[in-house]
Request: fold
Amino acid sequence: MNEIKYSSDVRSNTYKDSTNIRKIVFINEQNVPENLEIDDKEDQCTYFNLYSDNKAVATARFFPLDDGGIHVQRVAVLKNYRHKNLGSQLLKYIFKFAKKQGYNYVILGAQDHAQNFYKELGFKVIGKQYQEVGIAHHDMKLLL
Reply:
């Protein structure tokens, strides 16, 4: 059974579960330095986790932009739970949540290897390739 929980409180268990997934995926698997992964936007974001049988297995966060959009970041799924549509399920939940809140678009910086995943959700590549923590990215946008 899958459940999605969210919180903007950095003292919440939801936030702690999110950072745990991020540390496993980004710091341990992708060698992102911890001081870049845990950043100065932590207390400005809303964190979303997908729980499978009460275990946090997927996460993402967003922060609002000044022009009516949201910036989604830190999308991660634990290795043993990938390719099961859990990331898509979590992001679709976030899109519905954001739309209900009055936001009209989503932007994110996608690692290039994940572009097709985001394209299947309706995102379009915008801008040129750039490097972030040594990983090739492109910004992508989805209208809600």
The chain has a mean pLDDT of 96.
